[in-house]
Every structure is written in C-alpha cells, then in structure tokens.
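Recall that a protein's primary structure is simply its ordered list of amino acids. Everything else, from secondary elements to tertiary packing, is in principle encoded there. The following example makes that idea concrete.
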Amino acid sequence: MNYDGPIPGLTREQAALADRLLDLALDEDLGPGDATTLALFADPGTAAGRYVARAEGVMAGGDVVTRLFARLGARFFGSAARVKVIKTMEDGEKFSPGMELLRVEGEVAAILSGERASLNLLQRMCAVATRTREYVDLVGGSGAAVLDTRKTSPGLRVLDKLSVRAGGGVNHRMGLYDMILIKDNHLAAYGGAGKAVRAARARSSLEIMIEVDTLDQLQDILPAEPEYVLLDNMTPETLCAAVRMTDEAVARGGLRRPLLEASGGVNLETVRAIAESGVDRVSIGALTHGAGSIDIGLDFS
C-alpha cells in the first residue's frame, strides 16, 4: 500500500487541493489532538474496522480515505503508515446494505481519530456517485453524456468531481480558469454574442462555450464556431429544434459543429426526454449540490 502518493485520477494541482481539503478536515475535527483517544489509549494498541453500508449506493472515495489516514498518521502520530486501508470494493461498484466497502487495520488511536472525518467524506462521495449513476442509467442509449457543474460545496469540488466520474458521469470545467464560458451576464456587460466569441478567440487558446436561451440567439452564434453551445432552460421540443438548426447550419455553411449541451430544468423526471432531443451533453447541478449523504458506518472488530 502506498501511503504517501497522491489520490489517483487527479492532476498534480488537483491532488494538492485535495490534500489541503483533507488537512482542513483533520484540523477542524482534531484541533491539537483527539482528547478522548489521547486520554484512553496511552499505549499504541492495534485494532481493525470495517466500513459497512447501511443503504444502497455506488462506491466512491476509497483512495481518499487511504490518503486521509496517511495525512493523519504523518501529522498527528509521526508516521503515515499507522493505519492500513484495504479496499474491498472499487469506485463505481454498486453496494447494498450490509456490504463491506473498506477495511482499516492499525493503531487504534489513529483509527478512532480519523473515524468521523473519513466517514463524512466517504458518505458524501458515495452519495454523489449514487446520484450520478441514477442519471447515467436514465439516459442510457440516448448518446448524451451526463456532466456535473460548478455547483459544488466550497472546498469539496475536486472530490465531488472525482465522485461524479465514479458514478459514470463526465466532468465539466473544474473552475473559471480552464474553459471560456460566455454567459448571459457576460453578454449583457460586453455586447453581441458573436463579437464576444471572436474577442475570446483572439485572446485565449482555451475552448469556448457560449450560453443561449433562444433559437434566435443560437442562429446568430453558430457562424462564430464556438466549440460548445449551452442551451439553457429549453424544453425538449425546443432542444430538438436547436439540434436541427445546428445540423442544417453546419451542412449549409460548412461550419464546425459545436457540441450542444442542455442545462437547466433537469431532474430525474425530465432527463430522459432532454437526452432524447439529440443534444450531446446534459449538465446537472443536482449531481453535487443535492446529493446528501449515504448511510455508512465504521464497525470495530
């Protein structure tokens, strides 16, 4: 077990953000140390525990729990290897009540000190993965991908987006820095949509997405050839018309076809009809901001 490596699946910058988050989770819970554990366990005895599901869900966060205990051991107990985390279920696997997700073995004081922080993160990550899988299953066969948004809890974005991938979804931009996304307030402050796309193209090498909420706006923006068009709060019927308009404009004018993304008004009842309109992507804020938590416990043996 590699206790010192970054969380797999993250870039170097994302892994550094995740480590800051884990340190903050430990700092706010332990402060200078776990008073109860320090009072009861003066000797470094050992123990083992099982993270057990109390509800159905999709696994996410095994590597995060491993990294959390490594950070805890190094910072509070003098060695990252005080707790060994054994993954008995991989991210993306479905689980039922009573199933074991992870096992931990090692110094009892370290396990007890990391119990709450590890459960908080694991419960949320599994909830996001579970919610994402619901949407992914509902759009299956439509050809549309399910994407997250920036509607994440402050500080948790890296882990939220890792959880979306575990649930079968696709990550949208990580932040304001890795894509140009021209929205209605940008246009209100700047001017015409085509003018805004051309200005962004001249000043940045990043891919460009522009938000439209009417078919007239879509028609005006297509000649500017953005890589993506965000179709905001459109009905499935209007989305079908937007897909036809885009394909006809591309065929007629030899334009590069943008990827079409539907957003707004997406829920478990509407997502299938939206996906069947022919759009390429559906972005859903509820994957993260409304996920809640999955009931998981840590049982000592």
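The chain has two domains: 12-130+292-300, 179-284. Residues 202 and 298 are 54 Å apart (CA to CA).
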